[in-house]
Design brief:
Blueprint: H1 4-26, H2 29-46, H3 55-77, H4 115-134, H5 137-148, H6 153-160, H7 164-184
Length: 189
């Protein structure tokens, strides 16, 4: 059974990545915040009695179910419009808005790089995020869980509700698609 502190520490450690994960899926800041908050509440209410090692897998499954439910509700409400046309939030100047870009770096983080290096890195990260957003939903989900959340194949399969072979197939497709897209943009990692 996870202690209150273990649950609290887990939720604190996952909140930013979970928000980003939801943003990749729904492309709506408010909906993403709601999805992450709902997933955290459900985890705390219904699964606080589970061992701490099971929390990441349970949380991701709850979040994915919430994202699926979000799309189902949206489809019912907006049957006449496509899902993707309304999911990209814009700033007042028309550019994409990423709330995580507004967060300050923690003290002790590497700030010794030049402004040119920072701009280049921001552009590369922006390109990677854009390409991740273009992946099919299941590929994106598997890719983010495996490589961003560092879950193993079995955990990812359990969280996604599919076989380990499917996870491997989705991850392979995602990495190949990302590699092609980034190479086409002239980005080598």
């Amino acid at each position: 059974m996870a202690s209150r502190q273990e649950l609290s520490d887990f939720l604190a450690s996952i909140e930013r990545r979970a928000f980003k994960h939801a943003m990749f899926a729904v492309r709506d800041e408010d909906a993403s915040l709601d999805l992450v908050q709902d997933a955290m509440l459900k985890l705390a209410e219904k699964y606080a009695d589970k061992p701490a090692a099971e929390l990441p897998m349970l949380f991701h499954r709850i979040l994915q179910n919430g994202i699926t439910d979000h799309f189902r509700r949206q489809k019912v409400r907006n049957t006449w419009t496509t899902l993707f046309s309304s999911l990209i939030p814009k700033d007042s100047d028309g550019s994409d808005y990423d709330p995580l870009d507004m967060l300050e770096a923690q003290e002790g983080s590497p700030r010794a790089e030049s402004a040119a290096d920072q701009v280049e890195r921001a552009q590369v990260l922006g390109a990677i995020e854009a390409e991740i957003g273009k992946l099919p939903a299941r590929q994106r989900e598997a890719f983010l869980m495996r490589y961003w959340e560092e879950m193993d194949v079995a955990e990812t399969a359990s969280a996604m509700g599919c076989s380990e072979g499917s996870v491997k197939t989705h991850c392979s497709g995602a990495t190949h698609a990302l590699a092609r897209a980034l190479k086409a943009r002239g980005i080598t990692l």
